[in-house]
TrEMBL record, chain A:
<dbReference type="InterPro" id="IPR025664">
    <property type="entry name" value="Spore_III_AC/AD"/>
</dbReference>
<dbReference type="InterPro" id="IPR014211">
    <property type="entry name" value="Spore_III_AD"/>
</dbReference>
<feature type="transmembrane region" description="Helical">
    <location>
        <begin position="6"/>
        <end position="21"/>
    </location>
</feature>
<feature type="transmembrane region" description="Helical">
    <location>
        <begin position="66"/>
        <end position="85"/>
    </location>
</feature>
<keyword id="KW-0472">Membrane</keyword>
<keyword id="KW-1133">Transmembrane helix</keyword>
<feature type="transmembrane region" description="Helical">
    <location>
        <begin position="106"/>
        <end position="127"/>
    </location>
</feature>
<feature type="transmembrane region" description="Helical">
    <location>
        <begin position="28"/>
        <end position="54"/>
    </location>
</feature>
<dbReference type="Pfam" id="PF06686">
    <property type="entry name" value="SpoIIIAC"/>
</dbReference>
UniProtKB/TrEMBL annotation, chain B:
<dbReference type="Pfam" id="PF09581">
    <property type="entry name" value="Spore_III_AF"/>
</dbReference>
<dbReference type="InterPro" id="IPR014245">
    <property type="entry name" value="Spore_III_AF"/>
</dbReference>
<keyword id="KW-0812">Transmembrane</keyword>
<feature type="transmembrane region" description="Helical">
    <location>
        <begin position="34"/>
        <end position="52"/>
    </location>
</feature>
<keyword id="KW-0472">Membrane</keyword>
<keyword id="KW-1133">Transmembrane helix</keyword>
<feature type="region of interest" description="Disordered">
    <location>
        <begin position="186"/>
        <end position="212"/>
    </location>
</feature>
<protein>
    <submittedName>
        <fullName>Stage III sporulation protein AF</fullName>
    </submittedName>
</protein>
<feature type="transmembrane region" description="Helical">
    <location>
        <begin position="12"/>
        <end position="27"/>
    </location>
</feature>
């Protein structure tokens, strides 16, 4: 049922945007942005269920909580960057959108730095000491 | 051994399941590549965990530390806008500091005025006056009151301890007479200190280098102070250096 609601909202918004775009491109953009925002916020609540399942899984299997925290951060960063980039792209600013995505990628990579440093240290420790 | 193995396998399976979920959740392909790298590192870490445990004791702690560092950095970046509570805290700290400064200034002013008064009204060669302010909470406002005044007399060459008019200060061997005003016995919480046991208002502090000053001088000074600043005579202690000849 919710799926139909969301699709209906999207279709309505699309038709309205097509009508308005000829006269006022500005309002067309605003309409698109707000529709996107609404659907995004609506779905954020649904994602919470999935995240709860993930947390449950992590707790039960006893993997370190830092893994789950990092992974959730990655998901959050990815979603926010993607959403912002799409809105900006709708407005026609392709270059700014790609910068936003780039920022998201950089932040995700920064997440990996502690892990990489631990692994590198371990590998170096594995190597026999130079004679 | 089997238990350990099953633990390890369970960890790996859980992390891989997590990774699959994350892949599904991620919004687009571009992000997926990067997220896959991080998740892959996690899987690698989990698979390596027995070796890691062998080599270094606490990878978990190290990883935690790195993550903490990262999040602290991120927080520091985003915390440039101070919140209202932060501003309030700052304001409180500032006003406390200002109150402290004001109290210090008041103390200094009081000391100077007491000193001037003593020098004017008496023959005593007052070297230093030390006033101690206490705070009392009156109708929500912190108001200061004078709890203790210490008067230090200049050293005189007169071994009798009486500071006589025109007494010259011996250059070689100065004698310092301290008149100390004791804290109000009934008011101050540390009245239990046995400073004024004998009831003599001018009882000198015998601790340290100080001893009693001459009673006459003490009486004169303490009555002056008591009259001028509304202090109890019992709060007044006269002391002088122990090596001074004024000690009785």
């Amino acid at each position: 049922m919710e799926m139909i609601q969301i699709v209906g909202l999207g279709l309505m918004a699309t038709v309205l945007i097509l009508v308005v775009r000829e006269q006022k491109p500005m309002f067309a953009f605003l309409l698109a942005a707000f529709t996107g925002l609404f659907i995004f916020l609506y779905l954020i609540g649904k994602i919470e269920i999935v995240i709860t399942v993930l947390e449950d899984l992590a707790n039960r299997s006893g993997i370190p909580s830092i893994y789950l925290k990092t992974i959730l951060k990655i998901i959050g960063i990815a979603y926010i960057a993607e959403f912002g980039a799409q809105i900006v792209r709708d407005a026609g600013q392709e270059s700014i959108a790609s910068k936003i995505e780039f920022a998201g990628k950089v932040f995700i990579l920064v997440m990996a730095v502690p892990i990489i440093s631990v692994i590198v240290e371990t590998v170096i420790g594995l190597l026999p000491d130079g004679s | 051994m089997v238990a350990w193995l099953s633990d390890w396998l369970r960890d790996i399976i859980a992390v891989i399941l997590l990774a699959v979920f994350v892949e599904l959740l991620l919004p687009n392909k571009a992000m997926q590549r990067y997220a896959r790298l991080v998740v892959g590192l996690f899987i690698l870490l989990t698979i390596l965990s027995p070796i890691l445990k062998l080599i270094q004791s606490d990878i978990g702690a190290k990883l935690d530390e790195g993550m903490e560092n990262w999040s602290r950095l991120a927080a520091a970046d985003s915390a440039q806008m101070t919140g209202l509570s932060q501003i309030k805290q700052d304001a409180e700290a500032m006003s406390a500091k200002r109150n402290l400064e004001a109290a210090k200034l008041t103390e200094r002013t009081l000391e100077a005025s007491i000193r001037n008064e003593l020098i004017e009204r008496s023959d005593a060669a007052v070297a230093d006056v030390d006033a101690v302010l206490k705070w009392v909470n009156a109708s929500g406002q912190q108001t200061p009151y004078l709890s203790q005044v210490t008067v230090t007399l200049k050293a005189t060459e007169n071994s009798s301890g009486n500071v006589k008019e025109g007494a010259t200060v011996e250059k070689v061997q100065p004698v310092i007479v301290d008149v100390e005003v004791e804290p109000m016995e009934p008011v101050s919480p540390y009245s239990s200190e046995p400073k004024v046991k004998d009831g003599q208002s001018q009882a000198a502090q015998v601790e340290g280098n100080w001893s009693r000053a001459d009673p006459a001088v003490t009486a004169e000074l303490s009555s002056l102070i008591a009259k001028g600043w509304g202090l109890n005579q019992e709060q007044i202690v006269v002391r002088q250096p122990a090596e001074g000849p004024l000690q009785k």
